[in-house]
Amino acid sequence: MRSLQQKQASATPLPIPLPQGEIEKAKASFRTPKRKGFYMIKDLFIAGLVALRDYIATHVLTCLVPAFLLAGAMVTFINREAILEYLGEKANKFKSFSLASIASFFVAACSCTVIPVSSGLYYSGAGVGVAFIILWVAPASNILALIYTGSILGVGMVISRVIAALFMAFVVGFVMTLFFGKEKRDEIIPQKTNVGKKVIIQRNDLILLILILLSLLLPNYAVRKGAYIYKVIVWFVATIITAIYALKVIPREKIQDWLRETWWFVKIIFPLLLLGVFIVGIIGKILPEDWIKNWLGGNGITASFLATLIGAISYFATMTEAPFVDTLMKLGMGKGPALALLLTGPGLSLPNWLAIARVFGVKKALVYVPSIVVLGTFVGWFFGNFIFSV
What we know:
Order of helices and strands: HHHHHHHHHHHHHHHHHH
Number of domains: 1
Radius of gyration: 26 Å
Largest sheet: none
Structural class: mainly alpha
Distance between the termini: 90 Å
Helix content: over 70%
Number of strands: 0
Number of helices: 18
């Protein structure tokens, strides 16, 4: 009896394992239209969450926290009346725009991190053109990004990126001044310093600002390779030094004012940044890769416009745009559209749009964003056909 059962068992054919791809097809064949819609929404939601997770994990501590602290410090410690003489609406435009553009090259910030910095300067008394020049140049063409771009795409692309960024900066500065230079400002953030009118900032306060700035820049400049935890360690050490200095040197009332202004920036900007990053993650999931390859080739105006539009919507942290553009160029992307994407990728983003509208006002966002898109398209087309083709 036992031998018979063994024979029957041995005669039973064993199931043949299917390849993983066939299993997925089999599962998909059993999905109804409603189930397919559910799984599609689920995939998009997960893509948004993944983008949000990556952003929070790699940007909040080493980028946004010091940026918010710097913005609050600028509003608290910088003398409004003095800064009006150098960067205000009545200051010489060529000098103030040049100063803002050159200074921005040394600020390694992404399109979201730079908003607290530029808005802090704006509400300290700087002209609207100056504020938006910093808002553009710092993420689009800072030194750290330029060095990295040169190591991947060559010196020619770096020089073109600098020239294009400066050209766009001056145009944006004049456009924003033309539209909003005579606009009366609401006292959104009161100036609470007792600094003399002829002094921009007191020495002790300036040292504090430099320490905060170092806590923002050092993680990106000092740590170029290795795990992200090394950047966190550098930021933590710099922040501890800054805190010790502030507690020992800065009066308690000023520290309270500084933290209060910092919190003002956090509560109006940070939620919108998170929402924007989540939406960008969803868009990245939807956008087909084949479409990018087919439509970004050559140096035509359409390719430059599409590259600019993709850059203006997507979020790129500082230096991440260079390897992305290098990949697309190897797939046939033209040099002109590549330059447009190098500029607008880190310079603009959907979270950036939302935050600008919230901090500076919807009207300024509606002028600034289309101006950058038009200028990015023109720059990509011009350099692609008249500079890179020579």
